[in-house]
Amino acid sequence: MSNTIHKESYIIQLDQLELIIREINQRIISDSDPLLCRNANFFTKAFLTTMCAYLESYLKDASMVMIDEFNRRLSTTKLPHNLVRKSFNIKPPKTSDSEYAQLRINITKKDLDDISGNPYKTQILFKDFGINLESDDIFNSQKEVIMLIVDKRNKIMHHGDEASDVSGNDLINNIQLLTEYIKNVDALICKHLEQ
């Protein structure tokens, strides 16, 4: 597996967002659209929020790729659910549909709704999948700048901060950084799934 089925889709979405940002920046600089000029801060906040939403959605979809693959592997090994529970000293329920069921990871996409673009939280989440992001030099070189992008978005969303300190060029740079980050995380996922 060279990439998950979702990587290209999110990179395309980020590329399209970049084109929109470039067009709006050009109109603001040329002062050709008063509506855009008056609402530049609003658009900046919307773009920052959107790019972080794409990151979070990618992480959610990529996590489901891993869960689906692990469930596929489990289905071929036929491990008894109750035996695995017993090995972790978890008592099986008195009566249950899973009494004789095979082991399965029962995490749905809905269960992953709280995924954050925060790379430190992603690091913790990926430990559950058996991926040590801290051991990757590229991830370590990217995580601080990604954290700054996500933190700015969080301040806008949760604290009503303005985005007047974020330029159009900053937004374009952020998209390029997020794209490289997604590419690296995706490569790490695929490498892990090939093992």
How would you explain this protein's 3D organization?
Helix content is 69%, strand content 0%. The protein has helices at residues 7-30, 34-38, 40-77, 81-87, 119-128, 137-159, 168-194. With 195 residues, the protein is mostly helical. Helix 3 packs across helix 6 and helix 3 (40-77) packs parallel to helix 7. The model has no long low-confidence stretch (mean pLDDT 92). The longest helix has 38 residues, at 40-77. It is elongated and about 70 Å long. The protein contains 7 helices and no strands.
Topology of helices and strands:
Blueprint: H1 7-30, H2 34-38, H3 40-77, H4 81-87, H5 119-128, H6 137-159, H7 168-194
Determine the structural class based on helices, strands and strand pairing.
mainly alpha
How many distinct folded domains? 1
Give the overall pLDDT as a whole number. 92
- Overall, the morphology is elongated
User: What's the end-to-end separation, in Å?
Assistant: 11 Å
Task: Name some characteristics of this structure.
195 residues; mainly alpha; 69% helix; elongated
Provide a quick synopsis of the model:
By secondary structure, this protein is mainly alpha-helical. It has helices at residues 7-30, 34-38, 40-77, 81-87, 119-128, 137-159, 168-194.
